[in-house]
Amino acid sequence: MRQHKLALCKEHYLEWVPEQAGRFIKKYGMFEKSEKILVAVSGGKDSLSLWHILVKLGYQADGLYLGLGIDGGVDYSHESQRLTERFAAAHNLKLHVVDVEKEYGHSIPVLAEKSHRGYGKPCAVCGLAKRHEMNRIARDLGYDVLATGHNLDDEAAVLFGNTLSWSSEYLLRQGPVLEGRDGLARKVKPLCRFYEREMTAYAILNGIEYIYEECPFAAGSQSIMYKELLNQLETNRPGAKLIFYLQFLEARKRGDLFIEKNAQVLHMHPCPACGQPTSAPGGECSFCRMIGRANIPQV
Ligand code: Q46
Ligand code: ZN
């Protein structure tokens, strides 16, 4: 690991990762041993490794798998669900499975088409549905915190994108912990300081079976382009990604980033249909409106 000027054997690597994760969890005040954690698992290396690490560290962590109904010629959703269920069974862990089609009548690609929010590119609909469902399950089942497997490469790519457009609101909110408020669960990213390669190594060395394919809709996305750019930078300057992200967190913490008082807190009210908080003026949340539109019978 050139970025840390560190080389470890398998045995020590498998100790080092959870130990580091435990440190980040404490450093950023993510959660305590007494709290109930819901881990969003996709069947990929990051989320399964995260679950593995949390359990290993003695945290109470259950899983949530969201069935998106994505095929993409590789049977993506079925295969990722199969691997997630297998992991949960092998480690004797509790997994909640929510199938979007069963719950709301349509799979993600169909919802995207019907709601006109993105035919052939359902990521906007998918992201909206994932946020909504994760929060719903966390709230309904009484979890204190929602953990996702975002790694450093993910976070650096988001940061890069937000910096390119100077999206101050997003920049002020990006970080390892997003505090919960008004019915929104606290969200944490315990892997945010691990390189993607580090998580791949962790999964492989532990013999965790995960889905190798990316979601077929991820191809050609902006975030993949940013990741490639950052990897080029990293090749020439080992540690560049980590420094980019950590220096940002430092600047944000010092309040050096923007003048925070200009960032207003949006007024939230409960959605009349599902009860989750929304800032949509006077009406249903964007998710319920999207489902509503998708279910209007077509003449
Ligand atoms: S799962 Fe969903 Fe991603 Fe697939 S459809 Fe797009 S947002 S790429 S992380
Ligand atoms: Zn709603």
Structure description:
- The chain is α/β, with parallel strands linked by helices and 299 residues long.
- It is 48% helix and 10% strand.
- It contains 12 helices and 8 strands.
- It has a 6-stranded mixed beta sheet with strand order 3-2-1-4-6-5, with helices on both faces.
- Helix 5 (108-114) packs across helix 6, helix 5 (108-114) crosses helix 12 (286-294) and helix 7 (152-164) packs across helix 11 (240-254).
Task: Compile the SSE list and pairings.
Elements: H1 10-27, E1 36-40, H2 45-56, E2 60-67, H3 76-90, E3 95-99, H4 100-104, H5 108-114, H6 123-140, E4 145-147, H7 152-164, H8 168-173, E5 177-178, E6 186-188, H9 196-205, H10 222-236, H11 240-254, E7 269-270, E8 277-278, H12 286-294
Parallel strand pairs: 1-2, 1-4, 2-3, 4-6
Antiparallel strand pairs: 5-6, 7-8
Helix pairs in contact: 2-9, 5-6, 5-12, 7-10, 7-11
The chain binds Fe4 H S5 and zinc ion (ZN).
Residues 122-123, 126-127, 215, 217-218 line the site of Fe4 H S5.
Summarize the structure.
This protein is of the alpha/beta class. Helices cover 48% and strands 10% of the residues. It has twelve helices and eight strands.
